Structures are given as structure tokens and as C-alpha cells.
Amino acid sequence: MEDWTLRESLVTAAGNVRWDRLGEPGGEPVVLLHGTPFSSYVWHEIAPALAAGGYQVHVWDMPGYGASGMHPGQDVSLGAQGGILAELLAHWGLREPSVIAHDFGGCVALRAHLLHGARYRRLALVDPVALRPWGSPFFRLVGEHSRVFEQLPAALHEALVRAYVSSASHAGLRPATLDALVGPWTTEEGQAAFYRQIAQADQRYTDEIQPLYPSIALPVTVCWGTEDTWIPFARGQELAALIPGARLVPVPEAGHLVPLDAPARLTSELLAFLTA
């Protein structure tokens, strides 16, 4: 599955979105959301496993990420991505899918549900960006000086991205996996896009919805890597306490990149949640 290809596309206001479906038609729909600075590739082990379990799995790269379009002036903010998800669900004809979202994708899923009227059967949040405050010192530094970082020599830029992405894993990423995650950011368009998405990150997009979490009225599970150094496990406990009936699932020996650090354990937990 190192050759991860999204075969379909949809032109949106934020740019071209690449997407794909796995599994037999008619299976219960599941939509997977990636985070930043990643792509749908983070699900390359879990998506086929869910499809083999009888689900029809929808994967997509957000505008400005992975194989989707990247261009100057592009709005890749959390505000834009929530609307794009709602647009995709309508395009796919999915009225009430189950949604599984990692990192930044957690906020996107929550915004689409709470602000754009997207309906879900169930929602699984995996180490999501959902609570204030967020953003590491590195993240804030880059956001404040994105124009400077965009001008880094290509080799230095790639080394920075590799180190940053690697730090999200506790177990350590296989070379081919790291290459697949870093690759989209190493083109000329990708280098600018990498700093653009950080520059547009703004805590106000989570501040806007955080007071609404107690109004969520659907089954929710919160899975969290116990060794997450990007967003500590305590944030998972706080988030689960805010959402009525939410269940917190610790994932031992996993960092922020739970789908890659502990794919078998996470798949097992997700299948149990989807069939509960």
C-alpha cells in the first residue's frame, strides 16, 4: 500500500480535491479525515482494513494537501475545510456517514457538523485539534514568519519537514512512509503550501466551536496516543469530558500519528465503535 493513489477529483471553491472510495458499493459509509501536515496516506493501512470489514470507505486530501490542488492565495484554513467537507458529503450523496478524523481533521469534522449542518452516524476523533490553546512553539514561529521560511533552500526545507513529521511518531516511521508523507511538500508548489497552511492556522476556528461541544448528540469516541508529544493525552481527557457520553480510548505506545504508530490497535477500536 505504499503506492497510495486517489483516483477521483472534485473542483471546489478552495481548489481541486482528490478523493477515492474503497470497499464494495452498498457498504455502510465511513469517511476518513487526515490532519496537518499530513494527507490521506496516514490511513493507508486502516482504510483497506475497514473496507475488508464491509464498509465503503471514503478518503480525501484536503485542498492544499497531498495530491489535491495547491496554489498561491489558496484558503486552506479550518474555516474553509469544514465547508469543503460538507460539500464533499453532498457530492458523495452521504446523508449520515460515520466519520473518523485525525488531528486538524478533527476540527474540520466538528465544524462541518456544528456549523455546516453535516450529519454523522458516529464520530471518532483521533488526537484531534479541538481545544485551546494549540500550536507548538515551532508552529507559532513558522506562522509568524512564513514568508521567510518559504524562501529556504529546497534541501533545508525538506530536512525541516522530515524532522517535523518524524516528531509526530513515537514508534518511528518507516523510510517509505516518511517519504510518502513528506513528498507532496517538496515540490516548488508544495514548499509554499506547507508554510501557507501553517500561516492560516488560527485558534479562533476552535474557539468558535468549543462552547458547542456539550450540544453534540451522537455517539463519539476519542482515541488518543498516550505518548503524544504534540497534543498531550490530558487534552483527550478534557475533550471527552466536554462531549456527552463520549468514550476515551487510550492507545499505548503511540504518539500523535496513532494511525501509523498503532494501526492494528486503532483499527480494532474503530471496528468495535462502528459496530457498537
UniProtKB/TrEMBL annotation:
Signal peptide: none annotated. It comes from Streptomyces massasporeus. Residues 29-263 form the AB hydrolase-1 domain. This is Alpha/beta fold hydrolase. GO terms for molecular function: hydrolase activity. The keyword Hydrolase applies. Transmembrane segments: none annotated. InterPro entries: AB_hydrolase_1, AB_hydrolase_fold, AB_hydrolase_sf, Epox_hydrolase-like. It comes from the Bacteria. It holds the Pfam family Abhydrolase_1. Keywords: Hydrolase.
